[in-house]
Amino acid sequence: MFELSVKGEIASSHILKGYPGKCSQLHGHTWKVEVTLMGNELDAVGLLVDFRKVKKDLETFLDTLDHKHLNDLPPFANMNPSTENLARYIFEEFSRLIQPLQLKQVTVWESERTRVTYCP
User: Fold this and answer.
1) pLDDT tens digits for the chain (120 residues)?
2) Which helix (H) or strand (E) holds 83?
3) What is the dihedral of CA 51, 70, 21, 32, to 10 degrees?
C-alpha cells in the first residue's frame, strides 16, 4: 500500500454558534489542509499519481473555501464550521473529485498546535 500526502491552506472566518467562549464570536484562521491518498497500483512511470495533479486539484478545491466566511457557505448552513466539520466536508467533497483514486484521510490544522484528522 502506498500513501501520498499533499498540503494546502485556506484563510477563512467562522463563528461557532452555541460555543461557550470566544469562538462564538467572528474570528478567522489560516487552516493548513493535508490530504492523504492511498493505493496499491503504480502507473507505468512508477507513480501512484503525479504530485502536481493532486496539488492542482487540491488548490482548485480549496479556492472555494479561501477568504470566505464559512458560515455563509451552503455546506455549513445547518452545521457549525468547526475544524472537525471542515475536515469531514473536505474529505467527502475532495474524494469525489479525485476518483478513481482513494482518499484515506484529511487533516486540518487550526493552528500550529491543534489539528483534526478525519477518516471514515
Assistant:
1) 999 999 999 999 999 999 999 999 999 999 999 999 999 999 999 999 999 999 999 999 999 999 999 999 999 999 999 999 999 999 999 999 999 999 999 999 999 999 999 999
2) helix 83-97
3) 10
**C-alpha separations of 112 from 30, 41, 115 in Å:** 10, 34, 8
Q: Of 52, 61, 73, 53, which Cα lies nearest the Cα of 106?
A: 61
Amino acid making up residue 51: F
Assigned C-alpha cell, 54: 493532486
What positions carry a catalytic annotation?
Answer: 23, 67, 110
What pLDDT, on the 0 to 100 scale, is given for residue 77? 92
How many CB atoms sit inside 10 A of residue 85's CB? 19
d(CA 111, CA 93): 23
- Helix/strand/coil (H/E/C) assignment for every residue in 84-120: HHHHHHHHHHHHHHCCCCEEEEEEEECCCCCEEEECC
Domains of the chain as residue ranges with CATH? 2-118 (3.30.479.10)
